[in-house]
């Protein structure tokens, strides 16, 4: 085995694809299958939010934007280009990454729901995560990669197993490394029947732990959500779901009576900075690729490409 990857969320699968497509023999070991990871709970709209450092994040995000935009043009990937707006209750200030999106513009006052002072409208890749993770998994195995559901007890037990090990353990890195700098930011979302909404909507400056967002995925719509720091609870909370639906209804009356299909919870692997660096592991090399916070999908291709180019250089 040339490369062993720990983790089958979006970071592990994307890194696996980049290494396998570069000709390496790659195995992924994961504690849970892709459909049970944090990644499946994501919205998942491109945008480097809740992640640092800004200079590296914007570079990784740009590469990922290019790849995701291409995937949006291919059938069956679960990615599409979606338009919508992010609004604010205070003076709008365009995000630091807005220059990457040519469609980005400030909203006209008439476009805003009542109670909002401004916002910006743009088009970006949006992934339906259960479909997108399935696409990534298939692409990985079709490139010759193997996926084993088998937790890794410690990094040291892996020394000598592969030439290169890549740690894409998400929040699991906190215990595995161990790295106390990575901490969970819990996100709960509700999947409802989509009454015909086509544009996404985001309001982040709600009283914590709430945010309000809606990401339409064909016949379904993902309603969010929460940002609960250091909360490890993976069970969905009924009163939180009720609040999420009520908040969404206050913006979008078409949701009245929409059937609730599912509840999802994920733990964003937040860290002051993404950890993307290597260190020795016995006679082999260990790469770290974790700590992507609220932007794991948005950075995935950039981080994976950087590791692949360094490993295969
Ligand atoms: C509600 C919500 C909304 C979000 N919205 C967006 C969005 O719109 N856009 C965006 O870009 N991002 C979004 N995010 C963030 C994004 O989901 C994460 O940054 C991303 O999923 C992290 O992916 P990952 O592969 O690094 O980690 P994970 O998906 O958590 O995967 C970690 C993997 O490591 C494995 N693992 C852990 N420990 C071990 C071990 N000891 N042995 C073996 N395997 C192990 C796990 O089993 C799992 O397979 C959102 C997150 C949430 C919760």
Descriptive account of the structure:
The chain is an alpha/beta fold. The protein has a domain at 3-82 and 126-182 and 271-312: NAD(P)-binding Rossmann-like Domain (Rossmann fold, 3-Layer(aba) Sandwich), CATH 3.40.50. Helix content is 26%, strand content 31%. It is built from 6 helices and 15 strands. The protein has helices at 10-21, 54-72, 129-142, 173-176, 238-251, 296-312; strands spanning 3-6, 26-30, 79-88, 105-106, 118-127, 146-149, 164-167, 183-193, 200-203, 210-217, 220-226, 228-229, 260-270, 275-281, 284-290. The strands form 2 sheets. Strands 3, 4, 5, 8, 9, 10, 11, 12 and 13 form a 9-stranded mixed beta sheet that branches. Strands 6-2-1-7-15-14 form a 6-stranded mixed beta sheet, covered by helices on one side. The longest helix is centred in the N-terminal third of the chain and has 19 residues, at 54-72. It starts with a strand and ends with a helix. The model has no long low-confidence stretch (mean pLDDT 97). Flavin-adenine dinucleotide binds at residues 6-12, 29-32, 37-39, 41-45, 151-152, 168-172, 176, 187, 189, 224-225, 266, 268-269, 290, 292-298.
């Amino acid at each position: 085995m040339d490369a062993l990857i720990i983790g089958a969320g979006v970071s592990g699968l994307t890194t696996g694809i980049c290494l396998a497509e570069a000709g390496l023999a790659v195995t992924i070991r994961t504690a849970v299958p892709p459909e049970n990871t944090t990644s499946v709970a994501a919205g998942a709209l491109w945008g480097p939010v809740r992640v640092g450092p800004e200079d590296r994040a914007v570079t990784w995000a740009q590469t990922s934007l290019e790849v995701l935009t291409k995937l949006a043009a291919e059938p069956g990937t679960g990615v599409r280009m979606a338009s919508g707006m992010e609004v604010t209750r205070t003076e709008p200030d365009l995000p630091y990454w807005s220059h990457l999106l040519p469609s980005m513009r400030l909203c006209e006052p008439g476009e805003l729901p009542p109670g909002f002072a401004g916002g910006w409208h743009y088009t970006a890749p949006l992934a339906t995560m259960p479909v997108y993770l399935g696409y990534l998994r298939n692409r990985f195995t079709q490139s010759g990669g193997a996926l084993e559901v088998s937790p890794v007890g410690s990094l040291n037990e892996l020394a000598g197993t592969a030439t290169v090990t890549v740690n894409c353990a998400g929040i699991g890195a906190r215990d595995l490394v161990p790295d106390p700098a990575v901490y969970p930011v819990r996100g709960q979302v509700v999947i409802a029947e989509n009454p015909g909404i086509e544009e996404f909507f985001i309001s982040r400056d709600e009283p914590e732990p709430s945010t309000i967002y809606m990401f339409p995925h064909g016949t379904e719509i993902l309603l969010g959500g929460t940002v609960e720091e250091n909360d490890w609870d993976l069970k969905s909370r009924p009163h939180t779901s009720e609040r999420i639906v009520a908040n969404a209804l206050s913006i979008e009356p078409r949701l009245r009576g929409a059937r609730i299909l599912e509840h999802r919870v994920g733990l964003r692997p937040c860290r002051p900075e993404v950890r993307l660096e290597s260190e020795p592991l016995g006679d082999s090399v260990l790469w770290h690729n974790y700590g992507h916070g609220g932007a794991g999908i948005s950075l995935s291709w950039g981080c994976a490409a950087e590791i692949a180019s360094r490993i295969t250089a």
